[in-house]
Specification:
Length: about 375
């Protein structure tokens, strides 16, 4: 049972002032600007947008500044703000084949149509401190080498699909509108559209741990990174009153398609299967983890036994939500005085009864000896 905290308004107000002071830090050091965070902390911005379920780099940067860099708190701010926004409708499906690619790699094919595009990545850097970043010197300007890239690079799973070597993914019969998890509660067993939505805004660390568990020995096989691509894609909207599409602009996204083995069944020949990951911004680790877990959650679709944690969809989907998990853990900081006093009295009563029984047994044993 929770109890209200009375008489704490002044203390709470003082806490707000102290928080603002701590957040600002040493006033002799220049204050971080939102624009600086937006431009120089893009990977953190991407995580906040994903888990906050809202694409807005400016607000994500503000959330990071306000939360002192706490990505979970920043995502909470984004999620709370999102609930206040009016909803005009749903955008049209994004076509990632139209992506203006900045990075595109495949661990399955070396020589793939369009080539490998390494792009900006830490994959090939040494994990050593770069102390030059502590100076104010400006780094050299590197021109964007976008010329010469094929604007329509085929996706690797589509290449395998042309040979019939990978599972075919098609919309359900009638192509119904996907479930909206912001309006409809989760139901189990969950359809794949609901699973993907919940994974897309799930906690990156939690999904990473589950993906690791699949690879480490709790999974059925070793996945291959069929393709990881990052770049800008156009977003369109078709208002009912107009009846034609409007280009809303481009957003930066990351897409990952994992390829897994499948031995087949009496109805399905041996083939590769897919795991899909999609995230806002440059967030490969999130997209890869999502793709691995997505494939694990497709176990029942292939008649596989759901025998390890990443295959338990209720466990995965309920507990991957950053905000839900944070709320349940942090609510323990709220006053539980009545609950604890009840537990304390119960413990004292049990110990008293045990002591009385011990004394009674001891006295009975002494009487028998005499």
């Amino acid at each position: 049972m929770y109890v209200a905290v009375k008489g704490g308004e002044a203390a709470i107000a003082a806490t707000h002032d102290l928080l603002a002071h701590v957040r600002r830090g040493n006033p002799d050091v220049a204050e971080l600007e939102v624009a600086q965070l937006r431009e120089q902390m893009k990977l953190a911005i991407a995580r906040v947008m994903n888990e906050g379920s809202l694409f807005d780099e400016e607000l994500a940067a503000l959330a990071l500044k306000q939360s002192q860099g706490d990505a979970v708190e920043a995502a909470f701010l984004m999620r709370a703000y999102r609930t206040t926004l009016p909803r005009f409708g749903s955008s049209l499906p994004i076509d990632t084949t139209l992506m203006a690619i900045q990075r595109r790699i495949s661990a399955a094919f070396k020589d793939l149509p369009g080539g490998q595009v390494l792009g900006p990545t830490y994959d090939y850097t040494h994990r050593l401190f770069d102390f030059s970043l502590m100076s104010d010197a400006e780094p050299p300007v590197v021109p964007q080498a976008s010329a010469g890239l094929d604007s329509h690079m085929p996706r690797v799973p589509d290449i395998l699909g042309d040979e019939g070597l990978i599972e075919v993914e098609a919309p359900p019969a009638g192509d119904p509108a996907p479930t909206d998890i912001t309006r409809d509660p989760a139901q189990f067993p969950a359809a794949r559209d609901m699973r993907l939505q919940m994974l897309s805004r799930g906690d990156e660390g939690f999904l990473l741990g589950l993906a690791y568990s699949v690879q480490r020995g709790f999974g059925g096989n070793h996945p291959f990174a069929g393709e990881i691509r990052m770049g800008e894609v156009p977003v369109s909207f078709c208002p009912e009153e107009l009846g034609f599409e409007i280009d809303l602009g481009d957003i930066l996204v990351t897409e990952c398609q994992m390829i897994n083995q499948f031995v087949g069944s009496s109805e399905v020949p041996p083939q590769f299967t897919r795991g899909y990951g999609f995230s806002f911004g440059h967030s490969e680790r999130k997209a890869m983890s999502m793709a691995i877990v997505d494939r694990a959650l497709k176990a029942r679709d292939f008649g596989e036994a759901a025998s390890y944690p990443a295959q338990q969809e209720e466990f995965v989907l309920y507990h991957c939500d950053t905000i839900e998990a944070s709320g349940f853990v942090e609510h323990l900081k709220l006053p539980h005085y009545v609950d604890f006093q009840g537990e304390l009295e119960l413990l004292r009563k049990i110990r008293k009864e045990q002591e009385e029984r011990r004394l009674a047994v001891t006295k009975e044993a002494e009487g028998a000896l005499s």
